[in-house]
Write the C-alpha cells for this entry.
Amino acid sequence: MRFQRKLFLLTIIMIVISFLKWQTMSFSSASSSLECDPYAIASSGLTREYSDNVVNLQPEEPIDALIVFIEFEDRKAVEADRKKMLKVSRKVTEFYAQMSEGEIEFNWLNYQSAVRLHKDTISYNANFRGSIGVAQIIVDVQKRLREEFDVSELEFILVVVPSTTLRNEIANSIAYLDRGQGIINSAILASDFWKSGDWTVVAHEIGHAFGLLDLYSLDAAQLLSEGKATYFDQFVFMKSYDLMNWPGSSSPSLVMWNRFQLVPTLSHRIACFKKELKHYELISVNSIKPGIKAVLIPLSNFRVLMIEARDNFGVDASTGGSDVGVITYVVNLLSESGKGPIRIDCSKAMNSKYAECGLKTGHSRLIEGVRVTRERSSKLEIRISVVREK
Ligand SMILES: [Zn+2]
C-alpha cells in the first residue's frame, strides 16, 4: 500500500514536471552572441572533453534533479542524512543562481526510499575516481529507478551513498554522462564530501554535468596520493579562484569564463578586445548591477586571455584581501581536463598558497604581449586599460 502511494505521488510529480517543461519549451533560446567566442569562431577541432558526444545540463529551464539514497548488502542508508542533503541541495541552488545571474534553477526532488543494491560495497570495486565500479553503481541505480517511473523526465540524478561508507570504499565520481545509453546525467558522492554539510564538492560535480572541466592538476593529485606532493600543489593552476579547481578554498566561485560556459547569454557581460589600446570600466563578477564583468582577448585560435575583477561578496564573501583585485588568466581550449585548461597569472610565486594574483590599483602586468593595467577604482567600478604591445 505504502509503495503504491509513493508511486502515485511520483507519477503526479512527473506529470506536473512534463507539463511545466512543455510550457517553457518554446521560450528557451540561450545562445552565445559573443563575437570573439573562440568556440564559435573555430571551424573545427575544438571540443571540450566533457561535451564531446555528451548531453550537458542546459540552463534554459529549471533542472529537475533527483536525490537518491542508496544502500548495499552490508551498509544501510542513514535516515538522518536526508536533512543534511536537503541543506546541501539548497546551497547548490543558491550557488548556481548567483553564478548564472538567476538563469539556472534547480528543482530538487527526493526519492523517498533508499535504493537497495544487491551487492556489498567492496564487490563494486568503486574505490577510485572514475572507476568502472562507480559507473556500475550509477547504471544499477538508474535501472532500479526505471522499474518504477520514467527517469528520462529527469535531467540529473544525485546518488548518495550511506554516510557510513568511506571514501576509499566508494569514491566521488565525476558526473556520469549520457553517451547514448539512456543514462541520465548523474554524480555519485563519497560520504566525506557532504556529511559535514559541505556543498562545494557537490556543486563541483554538478559543474561537470554542465560541461566544466577539472582545473586542478590531476598529476599533482596523483603525486599527493603517493605522498610526493603537498595538498596545495594540486590547486596551483587556479589557486582559490574557481570551484572546479579548489572546492575547499575560501572563495568557492567560478571565473567568468566558466560562468559563460554555463550560460551563453552571459556574453553581454564580456567585452571583446580588438584595438591596440582600450579602456574598460569593470564591475565585480559577483555584482548584479549592469555592466561589463570581463574582457576577452584572443591570443591564438585556441587560446584566450580573460580579465575580470574579483571582490569579496556573495559566495566570495570570505575571500581574503590577498585574493581580490583584477585577475588575468589564460584559457587553453586544447588542454584536457585536469591538465590546466585555465591558468591564472600571478605576480608572486605560483606555488604560494595565498593567491595574491589580483592586480591592485596602479599596477600592471604583461601577459604574452598584452599589458593589463589597473588604473583606478571607485566603489562601483574598476578602470583598466589593455594594450597589445608590439
Ligand atoms: Zn572534478
Remarks:
- The CA atoms of residues 35 and 206 lie 28 Å apart.
- The first helix runs from residue 2 to 25.
